């Protein structure tokens, strides 16, 4: 009798071990183990791939048209677009690990996270756009004095805003909820360091010249699209366990396509002043400038056996090859990191804002890595180390009040007059 009861209990679907096994199968359903993948799991044999492709293409076209419109409007609107995307990404990530039951017991706790976010925004953009802020206001006006004071005391202001948030967090700690609150505190800071700080370099690239934002961003998009289509039609060999549907065929095909596209696209973008001139203020007026030597074409004579006698190449195209190589080989690891994160928390996408693509975070994972590299590369290998007089004057005057500028002018006159007397 006891033996029969034990057999029924073991066969019962309510057995804890059976329930746990069912839960495990269900939780990993969206992420099959690559070791068990066969060709039927890849895009090349995915039965629903055509419907997915059309949805993805439709969304991509609308995003591309909107992006072109913002580029046409100029630097300030591009920066505004980046800020909006950062807010949407942060909202997706803040909501990712939230639990409604705990949030109900912590009124104002979500507001605290946004307090840290906007404090970081004030810190980062205040330092990146300090020069543009100073040029956006007129001397001898109230706003000029306000901007000067802000730039002077920005570090203090941001520090005390952060300390206010820190004290706010300590005062809101509740018994039996410490673990949840501290995990959210750590998660907020990780978002600010890994996501917000990296993506903020995009703004610095925009004001150095739209091309230093547009070219890297375009290369990531080209690489993503090329990897999708090469994997779609030719993919057979899985690339990495974190992304089961990514293939070596897609990775290699996208890499070659991206490097070639970088060289050709730089030639097209580098011939327009609207894209190459740096923006020194926050206006939307037309730009005219000396494009610099890297945007002036150089002519190379080709061997007589070729049908073309000579070819015109912009020096920026050689820099574009480096950007293209990084975008095709290194930047995809930002996507692999995001895939690993999603697998760890058993989610398919960070959000559902963009049909066929997921959320904004899903689209910006590689862009963040690329933005930092583009900024570092531009500062290290593109900007000349010998600054022209105009740039030095802008840096000096941007940190001085109007009265200090008058004192500086008087001192310079005295120095120059003294040297003239000596000669």
SS-based class:
mainly alpha
Number of strands: 4
Low-pLDDT residue spans? 5-40
| Strand content bin | under 5%
What radius of gyration results from the CA coordinates?
A: 28 Å
- On the 0 to 100 scale, the average pLDDT is 82
Share in helix: 55-70%
Largest sheet: 2 strands, antiparallel
- Element order, helices and strands? HHHHHHHHHHEEHHEEHHHHH
Shape: flat
Distance between the termini: 119 Å
Number of helices: 17
User: Order of strands across the biggest sheet?
Assistant: 1-2
Report on the architecture of this protein.
By secondary structure, this protein is mainly alpha-helical. The termini are far apart. The longest helix has 30 residues, at 142-171. It has a two-stranded antiparallel ribbon with strand order 1-2. It has helices spanning 2-11, 16-27, 49-73, 75-96, 100-104, 109-128, 130-135, 142-171, 178-207, 211-234, 248-269, 273-276, 316-329, 332-344, 360-382, 389-397, 402-422; strands at residues 238-240, 243-247, 298-301, 310-313.
Describe the structure in brief.
The chain has 423 residues and is mainly α. The chain is 69% helix and 4% strand.
């Amino acid at each position: 009798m006891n033996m029969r009861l034990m057999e029924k209990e073991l066969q019962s679907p309510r057995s804890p071990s059976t329930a746990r096994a069912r839960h495990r199968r269900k939780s990993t359903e969206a992420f099959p183990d690559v070791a068990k993948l066969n060709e039927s799991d890849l895009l090349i044999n995915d039965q629903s791939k055509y419907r997915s492709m059309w949805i993805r293409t439709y969304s991509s076209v609308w995003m591309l048209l909107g992006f072109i419109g913002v580029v046409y409007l100029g630097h300030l609107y591009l920066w505004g677009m980046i800020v909006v995307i950062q807010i949407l990404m942060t909202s997706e990530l803040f909501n990712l690990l939230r639990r409604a039951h705990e949030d109900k017991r912590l009124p104002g706790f979500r507001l605290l996270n946004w307090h840290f976010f906007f404090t970081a925004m004030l810190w980062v953009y205040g330092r990146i756009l300090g020069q543009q802020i100073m040029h956006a206001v007129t001397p001898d006006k109230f706003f000029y004095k306000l901007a000067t004071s802000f730039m002077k005391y920005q570090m203090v202001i941001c520090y005390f805003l952060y300390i206010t948030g820190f004290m706010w967090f300590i005062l809101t700690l509740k018994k039996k909820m410490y673990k949840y609150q501290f995990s959210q505190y750590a998660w907020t800071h990780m978002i600010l360091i890994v996501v917000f700080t990296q993506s903020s370099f995009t703004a610095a690239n925009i004001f150095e010249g739209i091309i230093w934002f547009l070219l890297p961003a375009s290369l990531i998009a080209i690489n993503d699209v090329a990897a999708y289509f090469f994997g779609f039609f030719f993919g057979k060999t899985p690339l990495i366990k974190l992304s089961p549907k990514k293939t070596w065929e897609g990775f290699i095909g996208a890499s070659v396509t991206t490097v070639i596209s970088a060289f050709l696209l730089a030639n097209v973008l580098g011939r327009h002043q609207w894209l190459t001139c740096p923006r020194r203020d926050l206006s939307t007026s037309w730009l005219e400038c000396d494009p610099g030597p890297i945007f002036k074409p150089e002519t190379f004579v080709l061997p007589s056996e070729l049908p073309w006698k000579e070819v015109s190449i912009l020096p920026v195209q050689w820099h574009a090859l480096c950007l293209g190589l990084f975008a095709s080989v290194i930047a995809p690891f930002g996507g692999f990191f995001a895939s690993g994160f999603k697998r760890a928390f058993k989610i398919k996408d960070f959000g559902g804002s963009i049909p066929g693509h997921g959320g904004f975070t899903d689209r910006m994972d590689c862009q963040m890595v690329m933005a930092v590299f583009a900024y570092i590369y531009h500062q290290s290998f593109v900007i000349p180390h010998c600054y022209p007089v105009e740039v030095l004057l802008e840096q000096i005057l941007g940190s001085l009040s109007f009265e200090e500028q008058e004192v500086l002018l008087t001192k310079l006159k005295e120095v120059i007059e003294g040297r003239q007397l000596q000669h």
